[in-house]
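User: I'm putting together notes for a lab meeting next week and I want to include a structural view of one of the chains we've been expressing. I don't have a solved structure, so I'd like a prediction I can at least talk through. The sequence is below, exactly as it appears in our construct file.
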Amino acid sequence: MDIVILAVVIAVVVLGALGGLIVGSRRKKQLPPPPPAAPDITAPPAEPHVGDEAETPREEPRRTIEEVDLPDGSAPVVVEEPPAEAPQIEIPEPTAGRLVRLRTRLSRSQNALGKGLLTLLSREHLDEDTWEEIEDTLLTADVGVQPTQELVERLRERVKVLGTRTPEELRTLLREELVTLVGPDMDRAVKTEPEDRKPGIVMVVGVNGTGKTTTTGKLARVLVADGQSVVLGAADTFRAAAADQLQTWGERVGAHTVRGPEGGDPASVAFDAVKEGKETGANVVLIDTAGRLHTKTGLMDELGKVKRVVEKQAPVDEVLLVLDATTGQNGLVQARVFSEVVDITGIVLTKLDGTAKGGIVVAVQRELGVPVKLVGLGEGADDLAPFEPEAFVDALIGE
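Assistant: Thanks for the context. Below is the predicted structure for the 399-residue chain, given as structure tokens.
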């Protein structure tokens, strides 16, 4: 019996020892692996400067975030913009004697008429064929039929009385007759200074392509050169950039431009321009109208409306019709229609430097009974000149 008890005790002890070993091995398997040792980290080498590629990286001081001065956010950073430059005001050259100064430019294309007449008149025998050639020369220059016949008749009579004809005598004779034909006694002053009020009001009219807006800008320069203050009315609201173009001309000489929305009512713009001219005490208001085709009755009626609206504030002192000298006799058709609508008081002939048809000066004056007051002799800003009959004829016949 004792042996049995002893065997049981031994078995229990053995089983307990085996159980302890099994539990211990399981616990060892569940333990996490120890953390790896931290690797040695070395600082990156400093970036090489120019020419340092082959050198050993060297220690350089580095700023930490605590050392950098950061804005505190108490006030916004204001970036000052440079002030916009005001457009430079130009001083136009004086108008006195301007046509004389531009005489060479005019004679470059015009004196074919004068030289042709002098050559024909210098022939030893002036027969009927020669006089017909003289007539053809004048007609080609767009002098017009009636003025040509009058001039030829006077020349024939004076040459017959003169008898012998030296070149100097012929030049003097031709000059006198041409000056008479152009009309030295016509009043060619642009009326911009009415005695009883300010400002003077000038409307500029004409068909498309005659240089009307440019002429208005150049006329502003002429007036400023004569010491007058000018307000520009951009009543051409139908042509793209017409108002911008006129404003640029005005800024160059210090003239203010009144403008409206593109496609707006031109009469309203003209009215506002005159109103501002009166409020600011300007000497002259120049109103640039749309370049209307003279064949469009409705548009011509609208041009008449512009004038009527302006005259609710003050009378219009000048209505200048701008004609392209290169159009010749076609310009007379335009002149007739415009004169019926707005009562033209003066003519501005542009592009007179690029045509040999200077006789249009005579023809258009005869047609309308109004004088040529200004002539355009080039693309320059100061190439618009008051018309002077003597200087013009001198340019025609040359030296």
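A couple of points you could mention at the meeting. The two ends are 168 Å apart (CA to CA). The mean pLDDT is 79.

User: Perfect, that's what I needed.
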